[in-house]
UniProtKB/TrEMBL annotation:
Gene3D superfamilies recorded: 2,3-Dihydroxybiphenyl 1,2-Dioxygenase, domain 1
Name of the featured protein: VOC family protein
Domain named VOC: residues: 5-116
UniProt xrefs under Pfam families: Glyoxalase (PF00903)
Length: 125
């Protein structure tokens, strides 16, 4: 891979199960992961769409949340981001195996970085 590739989009939704069913039924996407919080992850085999279940006790509104790039190596990208004046990416917490690092652009939009990609094991990257 010579340049980062956009491979992941994430939206906070009110009913992740219903939204996943919609994308699977209407566009032939496949459900490949469900989080304990009810978030659903679907794919078309290339792009991963995260449907993050909105939490009533949370402060994150519905709508676009973040996107993610698959990259060959994190360190050179982290260095370029630091040189561009934004914070270095930080290791993501939690148990989601889809992205290793979280970063922000100059206007504060979140994006993920992953060396292994955003699709589940066994699906071609």
């Amino acid at each position: 891979m010579t340049r980062p590739r956009l491979r992941h989009l994430a939206f906070v939704v009110q009913d992740a199960k219903r939204m996943a069913a919609f994308y699977c039924e209407q566009f032939g996407m496949e459900l490949f992961h469900t989080d304990p919080d009810g978030s659903h992850f679907v794919t078309d085999g290339y792009l991963n769409l995260a449907l993050i279940q909105q939490q009533l006790d949370g402060d994150v509104a519905t709508g676009f949340n973040h996107f993610g790039f698959q990259v060959s190596e994190i360190p050179p990208i982290a260095e370029k981001l630091a040189e561009a004046g934004v914070p270095r990416p930080v290791l993501r917490g939690g148990d989601r195996p889809f992205a290793e690092y979280r970063a922000i652009d100059p206007e504060g939009n979140w994006f993920d970085l992953s060396e292994h990609g955003f699709l589940p094991p066994g699906l071609a990257e």
